[in-house]
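seq as requested:
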Amino acid sequence: MLKTLLFITLLPLSASAQERVSVGVYHGRPVSRLTLSPHASGQVTAERALLKGKVTLTAAGGLVRCKDRKALDGRRSVSLSAYGGGVWLSGPGLPRRLHKGDITISARGDRLKVAAMVPVEIYLQSVVSYEARDLSRPEAFKAQAVAARTYALSKVQSHSREGFNLCDTPHCQFYAGFADINPVAARAVMQTDGEIINYKGKPASAFYHSACGGFTDGISAVWPYEDKPYLRSVQDGPAARPYCSPATGFSWKKKIAFADLERALRRGGWLRNGEKISSVSVRGHGRSGRPLKLAVNAGGRAVEIPTSDFYHAVGRTLGWTAMPGNLFELYSGKDYIMLDGKGAGHGVGMCQWGAEGMAGKGFRYWEILEHYYPGTVIEKMEKKKK
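struct tokens:
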């Protein structure tokens, strides 16, 4: 079915323009020192003066400090404009990233806060490049572009109290600047300009994940959220060979020692200090086959943990490769658990590898989105009039 286009009003993204979004850069990381290095083809100004060389900023007493340039020293904030090739940002413990747009660096005690204001469609070129780095087919990238645009719209007020719209982590969407933009991803964003997923006239909650393992899951089976008709369990193609079956690591086996699991669950607040795990078992399955809860016997008591919380506790402490997804069978050994799983990620909404598989079979991007978000339509936002 061909996509339907409907003009709607875009919710405010920023105080200055509806077509730009403010992104918190290095969100959740302590930024003690930040080095600015203009790209070779960058046009960078700092407080309206051309920035020709590298400068380093720190913070002290709520003020930005800069030994390299007196005009930037002693301010509450420093405003940059980075165009062309942009500006490289780096610092101790921070990944070096290339950013563009209007960037504000402000002092918060002895830390720096960084926010970049960029056009929404340019922001999406970065998001789609990094969030869908494993994809290769144009129609899959287009599906990802529409899903990412819709997701950004639904999350646009998530960090308003912090002074920006979205963060650069997977909490909103992974945004790592412009050092490695995939041209297919950039083209997909441009070809779907302004298109979002709507359900009954409102933007959908367009969750997506890496590989569903054969079935996506309903949102309430994974998180304590209200059911949504378009976020229900969907079979991902033929049972014998799901659309996402070509995914890297589609089937996996992982062994986690009780000692490591105790560390993860203690950090997550599920276990008390000193409690030792004696066994782990599954408590019920959802329609997709994913376990609903895990019962952890430790310290003479049984702790029931929602599988999504268990998955995140393990990932945050032991790394996301320790337990790639939440679709698995579990065996509890003497001092370990063995997981026999399929797919990767939380399993709600669009399966990225499934989108790749569907695109390989000739499906167009709106058909892919209709498959993973049943009952929705693709509609076009009305841009702000100048």
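The CA atoms of residues 22 and 307 lie 33 Å apart.
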